[in-house]
Design a protein that fits this description.
InterPro entries: Interferon-induced_GILT. It contains 10 helices and 5 strands; from the N terminus they run H-E-H-E-E-E-H-H-H-H-H-E-H-H-H. The chain has helices at residues 2-12, 35-52, 84-98, 103-116, 123-133, 140-148, 150-164, 184-192, 194-201, 208-213, and strands at residues 25-30, 57-62, 67-70, 76-79, 175-178. The strands form 2 sheets. The protein has a 3-stranded mixed beta sheet with strand order 2-1-5. Helix 8 (184-192) crosses helix 9. The relative contact order is 0.18.
Length: 217
């Protein structure tokens, strides 16, 4: 409850900002159990959003180095570098993103989920965590149907196709792009000072925190 209140306050810090009006899109390629991904999301992205609000658009791609193989019976088997739980978490996150929730609900879900999920959970527990973290514009009932059905497979396959078209190719996660372009210096800056990096890249509708930080924002 506290985190949701904080996110509401964050949105009010930039009253004129809206996701639809933003000129900046951050695309994050990540994996559900990647330690470095967790560090970026929990220590940079989530607290940064509390200050920046909807001044930028967030485009999430929970796939990373996941692979798939089509089976003889028509099903798809996925393998992930951090084990089966990671594949299941990626599946859950894909289904949440597919609902197109408001950005504050999406980021709140990410923070809530990654704080609880681990390699030691069984699938039922991973779904229970999703239920605990759902709310607002995220429907757990719809999420469960998606995860247990073919829609999740479609989403993950689309992520695989999207990643295969990246230039340069994905070499690690978290992998960050701004407005579709890869800049290793900006990516490094975002990992170290997310708020400052977003402020530097925004052209219009800068939130109050950018003015408070000073500098050439």
């Amino acid at each position: 409850m506290f985190s949701k209140i904080v996110l509401l306050i964050a949105a009010s810090l930039c009253v004129s900002c809206s996701v639809q009006d933003s000129d900046l899109t951050l695309t994050l390629f990540y994996e559900g159990l990647c330690p470095d991904c967790h560090v970026f999301i929990l220590e940079q992205l989530y607290p940064g959003y509390q200050q920046l609000g909807d001044s930028f658009k967030l485009d999430l791609v929970p796939y990373g180095f996941e692979n798939y193989e089509k089976q003889a019976d028509g099903t798809i088997k996925y393998t992930c570098q951090h084990g089966d739980n990671e594949c299941y978490i990626n599946r859950i996150h894909a289904c949440v993103i597919d609902q197109k929730p408001v950005q504050s609900d999406l980021i709140n879900f990410l923070q809530c989920y990654l704080h609880q999920a681990s390699v030691y959970n069984i699938p039922e527990e991973l779904l229970d965590i999703a239920k605990d973290c759902s709310g607002g514009t995220i429907s757990f009932d719809d999420l469960k149907v998606c995860v247990e059905g073919s829609r999740a497979d479609e989403l993950l396959l689309s992520y695989s196709e999207r990643q295969s078209e990246l230039t340069p190719k994905l070499a690690y996660v978290p992998h960050i792009r701004f407005n579709g372009a890869y800049d290793p210096d900006l990516e490094n800056d975002a990992n170290q000072d997310f708020v400052g990096t977003i402020c530097k890249l925004l052209k219009d509708n800068k939130p109050n925190v950018c003015e408070a930080q000073g500098g050439d924002f």
